[in-house]
Design brief:
- The chain is an alpha+beta fold.
- The longest helix has 17 residues, at 85-101.
- 38% of the residues lie in helices and 17% in strands.
- The protein is elongated and about 70 Å long.
- It starts with 34 loop residues before the first strand and ends with a strand.
- It binds L-tyrosinamide.
- L-tyrosinamide binds at residues 39-43, 45-47, 50, 69, 72-73, 106.
């Protein structure tokens, strides 16, 4: 004779054994660090050369390049773009090399954002 509730043979139910409870794992998305490329003012580099640099290496329009050049001229420096480390490094090298080849003291640097 059987008395009381009928129990399953395996996998007793209880806290932590409810097959209807799903566990969500928070996946932390890692964004790559970004770097600001800065152009610095000096007293000798011609304004038109700086405008040309901004058009050539940063894909800016002539008007946009002129505005940024004037900002650098007046304020001492300006951020000309934000890129991944490798792209920022390449832009800085391209500008520095182009300025050196034209014998202008124009300086371009990068810093972590
Ligand atoms: N100050 C320079 C001049 O008067 C122009 C200039 C602008 C130079 C921006 C560098 O990053 C620069 N000829």
């Amino acid at each position: 004779m059987t008395t009381g509730p009928i129990m399953m043979a395996d996998t007793p139910q209880g806290p932590g054994n409810d097959s209807s409870v799903l566990t969500k794992t928070k996946s932390k998305t890692q964004r790559p660090p970004l770097y600001k490329v800065l152009l610095l003012n000096d007293d000798y580099t011609p304004m038109e050369f700086v405008v040309h640099v901004l058009e050539r290496f940063f894909g800016m329009s002539h008007a946009q390049s002129f505005d940024i050049m004037l900002t650098v001229h007046k304020k001492g420096l300006a951020v000309v773009g934000v890129f991944s480390f490798e792209v920022a490094e390449t832009k800085v090298a391209q500008v520095m090399d182009f300025a050196r080849r034209h014998q202008h003291p124009l300086q371009c640097t990068m810093e972590k954002e």
